[in-house]
Design brief:
alpha+beta, 6 helices, 186 residues, eight-stranded antiparallel sheet, globular, Lipocalin
Length: 186
């Protein structure tokens, strides 16, 4: 009897721990790495931290567009499409769509589907990075970065980068807008 109770407690603990460490990836842009090799970039809304000096730290990842497209076009991935449809029915609007009002309903639907793929699969992950954003100075720096090639780490660095001004019309600008708005709401 005690063995059964212990086993149930371990299972319950594992379920709780896996929920605590889950990520919630949100789309914020895309880039061409090289011709024909496009990635979409996402930030983990569960990893957002506001430091004592009021800067924002967040994990981001880049996912191959080809990988996202392949997963969405797979007939067997009904779960991802169902989750995206449920979010849309519940009125969810992606943070990206909120800061880019020219995005139409169909664009928001696509973004939500991409977010669901990012949440449910590590296939096609090209990079993961930990960034710090200074909203007051409009600057960003990389705290850590890992680059993947064919699912294997090809380069990794934990050297804290220099502060750079956030370039206009860049992914960093979009990420900064989203996260600095988030900071204001806290």
């Amino acid at each position: 009897m005690n063995q059964r109770i212990f086993s149930l407690l371990v299972i319950l603990l594992l379920v709780c721990v896996s929920n605590v460490f889950s990520a919630d990836w949100k789309f914020y842009g895309g880039a061409d790495i090289k011709k024909g090799d496009e990635i979409y970039v996402f930030y983990d809304s569960e990893s957002i931290k506001i430091s004592t000096n009021n800067n924002i730290m967040v994990w981001v990842k880049g996912v191959s567009y080809k990988s996202i497209d392949k997963i969405l076009n797979n007939k067997h991935n009904k779960v991802i499409i169902d989750k995206a449809a449920r979010k849309i029915a519940d009125g969810y609007i992606s943070p990206y769509s909120k800061i880019t009002p020219e995005i139409e309903y169909k664009g928001n639907m696509n973004i939500i589907a991409w977010e669901e793929v990012a949440n449910n699969s590590s296939t096609g992950v090209r990079l993961k990075a930990y960034h710090e954003i200074d909203c007051t100075e409009n600057k960003i720096r990389t705290l850590s970065i890992t680059i993947f090639k064919n699912g294997i780490v090809s380069k990794s660095s934990s050297n804290v980068g220099d502060w750079d001004f956030i370039a206009p019309d860049s992914n960093a600008e979009l990420l900064g807008k989203i996260l600095c708005e988030y900071r204001k709401s806290k």
